[in-house]
Write a structure and sequence with these properties.
disordered C terminus; ClC-type_chloride_channel; ion transport; ion channel; Cl-channel_core; transport
Length: 455
């Protein structure tokens, strides 16, 4: 009898073994994916903490030695560009265009724009750049870091899961932006509006899962509050309408010019300065660092770093920003971006918008509506630069807890983005096409230099 039961059991195990192995592989694949999302959250937190710590050290040194940035910022800029070009060539710039370009890639022979080495360089060199006074942010680079982690995860997933690499890149990038800003809803919108332009049923689950896991890690280490805390916003309908009109016109024009300048610099910039940047990129970065240092010293240190501290203070009424803050920050951010350093423009764009809103509030003489006007201008400038209006107003709404201002934020974002489109094509997708063409040209150049016998 026992022999009969043991025989039946052995037969059952042999028959069910493939199914159990398949279930085990699927469970292992989900665990690997969850682990990747958690790592994205941890890296976003490490990036944020390191950049803030380095920026704090730089500000403290600047307060005690006001002329120190004239030495530190140019040298750091030259070193960062050297390291980027020598070891992390795809880490230059924001990181969002590189991620979008990688999603277009169909030929495995093209130079990769996402990898663990690129992610390490993006964080390491990015922290050095922000910590030496350059007007750059860490949110855009975190998109490339998150997508790089998920690209590595995809290589270890069982094929039986049927998860496409494209879907994981969207999930990783959106989880990165959500963890960096501590804005989970904005991460989902960013995935839809900027990265994928559509949502498939299977991909939506991956995106939400990655955002939830990365967001939980971010909240554990960075707290559960809003990025800029709870901002008290007072308004009425007539004042709101006037503020929306002012914010839309000013930020739409300024943001459109900002995006246009970055695109022209990457495509059709000609002349002696452009030639010098092309032939002497490290020296050019040092000169950019010198200009950034001069702007920072003249402005009393206001234009150094991402601009988070200045934006936080003016939103809560702790201090005032001078009228020249927005144009000085504008120039500092464009200069830092042109230098070729790893770094994004999300946080600097928000600070430029805050500066515009503060100046408009001073001109109108309406301190009671200052926070409202600043929030609207932050939304408008970010929407005009990125031409991603839904992502922009959701980011600001979540960062300042501005649900009471949602209609005004929506209107400002949509109208400012429309004005920007009259001046400039979409920034990130235009730069992504340029990055994709660079990767193809690099591969063709390398192939042409290879002897026929080695091809």
């Amino acid at each position: 009898m026992n022999r009969f039961y043991f025989s039946r059991l052995a037969t059952y195990l042999r028959q069910e073994r493939p199914r159990h192995i398949a279930h085990l592989r699927m469970a292992l694949g989900r665990a690997i994916f969850w682990g990747g999302a958690i790592i994205v959250g941890l890296l976003a937190v490490a990036f944020a903490k390191s950049a803030d710590a380095m920026s704090g050290v730089f500000r403290h040194a600047h307060e005690h030695m006001p002329l120190l940035p004239l030495l530190v910022t140019p040298l750091a800029g030259a070193l960062c560009v050297f390291l980027t070009r020598r070891f992390f060539s795809a880490a230059a710039g924001s990181g969002i265009p590189q991620t979008l370009a990688e999603m277009r890639r169909e030929d495995d022979d093209l130079r990769p724009l996402l990898s663990l080495r690129i992610a390490a360089g993006k964080i390491g060199v990015g922290v050095m750049a922000v910590g030496s006074g350059f007007s750059l942010g860490r949110e855009g680079p975190t998109v490339q870091v998150g997508a790089s982690i998920m690209a590595a995860v995809h290589r270890h997933l069982p094929r039986s899961l049927g998860i496409q690499r494209h879907h994981l890149l969207v999930a990783g990038g959106s989880a990165g932006i959500a963890a960096a800003f501590n804005t989970p809803l904005a991460g989902i919108i960013f995935a839809i509006e900027e990265m994928s332009r559509s949502v498939e049923a299977r991909m939506s689950g991956l995106v939400i899962t990655a955002i939830v896991l990365a967001g939980v890690v971010s909240k554990v280490f960075m707290g559960g509050g809003h990025y800029f805390g709870h901002v008290l916003i007072e308004s009425n309908d007539s004042v709101l309408l006037a503020c929306v009109a002012l914010a839309t016109l000013s930020t739409g024009l300024a943001g459109g010019v900002f995006a246009r300048m970055l695109i022209l610099a990457a495509t059709r910039w000609t002349g002696r300065v452009a030639d010098y940047r092309r032939h002497h990129p490290i020296r050019f970065a040092a000169l950019c660092g010198l200009l950034v240092a001069l702007l920072g010293i003249v402005s009393g240190g206001l234009t150094f770093g991402s601009g988070y501290e200045q934006t936080l203070q003016v939103l809560h009424g702790y201090g005032e920003l001078p009228w020249y803050f927005a144009p000085a920050k504008f120039i500092a951010t464009v200069t830092a971006y042109l230098s070729g350093l790893p770094g994004g423009i999300f946080a600097p764009s928000l600070s430029i918008g805050a500066g515009i809103g503060n100046t408009l509030s001073d001109m109108l003489g309406t301190p009671a509506t200052q926070s409202m006007l600043i929030a609207l201008c932050m939304t408008g400038f970010l929407a005009a630069v990125t031409q991603a209006p839904i992502t922009s107003f959701v980011i600001v709404m979540e960062m300042v807890d501005g649900y009471s201002l949602i209609i005004g934020l929506m209107a400002t974002a949509l109208l400012a983005s429309a004005i920007s489109r009259l001046l400039s094509p979409p920034l990130y997708h235009t730069l992504a096409m340029i990055e994709y063409e660079k990767a193809r040209d690099s591969e063709h150049t390398q192939l042409a230099a290879t002897p026929p016998s080695e091809r």
